[in-house]
Automatic annotation (TrEMBL):
Superkingdom of origin organism: Eukaryota
Species name: Galerina marginata (strain CBS 339.88)
Native organism taxonomy: Eukaryota, Fungi, Dikarya, Basidiomycota, Agaricomycotina
Cofactors: heme b
Signal peptide: 1-20
Heme haloperoxidase family profile domain span: 62-293
Listed SUPFAM superfamilies: Cloroperoxidase
Keywords: Heme, Iron, Metal-binding, Oxidoreductase, Peroxidase, Signal
One of the record's GO molecular function terms: metal ion binding
Pfam families in UniProt: Peroxidase_2 (PF01328)
Official protein name in the record: Heme haloperoxidase family profile domain-containing protein
InterPro entries, sorted: Chloroperoxidase, Chloroperoxidase-like_sf
Family to which the UniProt record says this protein belongs: Belongs to the chloroperoxidase family.
Amino acid sequence: MFASLLVYTLLAVNVFSASAFPAYESLAGLSRDELDAVLPTLQSAVPQSPPGPLANDKTKLINDAAHPHLPLKDGDIRGPCPALNTLASHGYLPRNGIVTPTQIINAVQEGFNLENTFARFLVFSTFLVNGNPITGLMSIGGATPLTGLNPPKPATVGGLNSHNNCEGDTSMTRADFFFGNNHDFNETRFQHFVDYSNKFGAGKYNLTVAAELRNFLHQDSLKNNPQFSLVSPRLFTAYGESVFPINVFIDGRQKDGQLDLTVARGFFQLMQFPKDFHRHDGAISNQGFDYVYNKYPISPGANTKGVNSYKADLTSATLFQPCLRYSSFVNNNIKALYPNPTGLLRKNINTYLQFLFESTAADNCEQVFPYGKDY
């Protein structure tokens, strides 16, 4: 339980009384001094340093006796990412869908052999926008009180269902946000996946299919979604989404890059590893995204005046500008959510930003410090 509102009038004389302050309301509206006094009393968590790469990245059995698939219980949360949904339903992540960044990095490495720095960038960029930097918790689906007391607005702590970061328009199996439900499996969308696999992949999903389907999805949103947007960071996750099933949903003992459609449905809809599933042999990241892009190059942009009004956004990072992606994400996305964090909130955000920057080491990016270096 947290401090009651009465406490705020007593801060000047350093009186603190734990009582019935609602545990999951927002701290919006409090002054800077009030925030600095209250935040340290919350159920905060010191950010955990990210784990390193696997000691052994060879293929191994993942759908094992220690990780059975279990049906959802009341209150369990799932969202737009079939990989995380599957990991949670098999117990590689907490089955209720409330996770920490460290748990996600460990799970995607262990379950799918995702390359360490790639996993860290995805996780910390997603967490900083959709998670709670005070408690260190994030929902893999919608917003929930289980992630703890929310930081002050405009922060949202909306979970992975939040639009235009990890989730976004042109999804293969989820509808565009404009049309309502952007997070649950959509059979109509999946049928496009099936149809294009049959037409271009002889009944399998592969890189050829990925390129054709990506182009179709872009054109479909352009023609039907007046609010269609495809800019950084969603631009990156959209192309990552196209190749991810080929890279990690195919059994690691299979080397042909051909994803079976029954296996694909198992991940996308049923949140379930195939029987006897082995992870990818060797760490892997976004292999193949350049092939998908080069077949039908698309500039970042959005519909600006209704459908069929796509205009390029020259301020957005392209797929081949990782450092601009990093710096604009920090200076624009994070600053918009946390314009002036103080105390514990600022310290934790700076720590997570440091973890994010460290994952860009191979790109030789210049570090940005939106809140200063003293943390």
